């Protein structure tokens, strides 16, 4: 059977208008072919065929919409883009090969030599490297400031500042940014406000409603949710996304159709997963806070968290990542981590499986000693990305860590 685009049954946008993120996660953007399949179809093809030479010319010339080549037009990728754009409340999304490719594509499309970026200090380690090492090579300078220090943001802005870039909540210390305030500062200065929404996902936080211009995701994390694929996406107004799409078409950091299909499946369960992550994380944070060998717990769901009220205002839940300082140093942190038997020792996050990490020697290991101090990455800090296992079983496994701290010689109970 030949597949003609005209035979697609597209779910009309108006059918889903006004519906909640939970519904959009399951339904938005789905295409249906003439086979009337119920699940999302997958199109693993590099190129597409034309009915005639004239049609090929019209497609290439942009006179007729339609698929050309999967570096920049693939229906499965477009379905993923349409779904995440609907969930974030944005006009358009552009999917990329990874979260880093999403950030790179945004910068390449929207910044030029001589521009200046202000970025929060606690961003994902590789984001730091991208700005400090690579964007700097092309004449884009970046100043790093504390996520929560409004005065530092204001004084870092210069005439050349074209972008404010943040993650909120931050990793691993769960600091929360005032998005409305930063959006105002950005727009007063003719700069774009870019929010990496990886930790909250649109289920918990919709930054466009707080003045963000562009949203970045590492789809690798919660959007997939089951640790299968690497991918990313940029969401924003059509005018800006056209530029990002243009970069993607020319430079090629494209999402594969297979990965897009996995992410479509991931999005369907994202709302219920995020609620389970939040419930487990809050319960664990409260439990950790009571342990005698824990010095400090970082989780915005705790009433003692300095931005607890702000998080309640901006977010529908406090997320699945928390961290804590043990009494002691690296030795205690490693002994605690090594005593767990179920929880995975891995730096990945956003998975249904709970993971445990020592940030100072893994995710943030490339930071200089001073940068670690500035970012609060101490040797006794442990990060947990809380999964959706039974919370009692998570406590049982973490209890092994606490036992090991009390009995250093036969700690592995
Ligand atoms: C993982 C991550 C990234 C990078 O995403 P990749 O898919 O690994 O390239 C960017 N931002 C945040 C907050 C992340 O956690």
UniProtKB/TrEMBL annotation:
Cofactor names: pyridoxal 5'-phosphate
Can you name a GO cellular component term?
Answer: cytoplasm
Q: Which UniProt keywords apply?
A: Amino-acid biosynthesis, Methionine biosynthesis, Pyridoxal phosphate, Transferase
The broad enzyme category this protein falls into is: transferase
**PROSITE patterns listed in its UniProt record:** CYS_MET_METAB_PP
- Catalytically driven reaction(s): O-succinyl-L-homoserine + hydrogen sulfide = L-homocysteine + succinate
Which pathway is this protein assigned to? Amino-acid biosynthesis; L-methionine biosynthesis via de novo pathway; L-homocysteine from O-succinyl-L-homoserine: step 1/1
Which molecular function terms from Gene Ontology are attached? Answer: carbon-sulfur lyase activity; pyridoxal phosphate binding; transferase activity, transferring alkyl or aryl (other than methyl) groups
A biological process (GO) of this protein is: homocysteine biosynthetic process
User: InterPro entries, per this entry?
Assistant: Cys/Met-Metab_PyrdxlP-dep_enz, Cys_met_metab_PP, O-succ-hSer_sulfhydrylase, PyrdxlP-dep_Trfase, PyrdxlP-dep_Trfase_major, PyrdxlP-dep_Trfase_small
Is the keyword Amino-acid biosynthesis assigned to this protein?
yes
PTM sites of type N6-(pyridoxal phosphate)lysine: 221
Q: What does this protein do?
A: Catalyzes the formation of L-homocysteine from O-succinyl-L-homoserine (OSHS) and hydrogen sulfide.
What does the similarity note say? Answer: Belongs to the trans-sulfuration enzymes family. MetZ subfamily.
Q: How does it assemble?
A: Homotetramer.
> What name does UniProt use for this protein?
O-succinylhomoserine sulfhydrylase
Recorded source organism is Marinobacter salinus
Lineage at the top is:
Bacteria, Pseudomonadati, Pseudomonadota, Gammaproteobacteria, Pseudomonadales
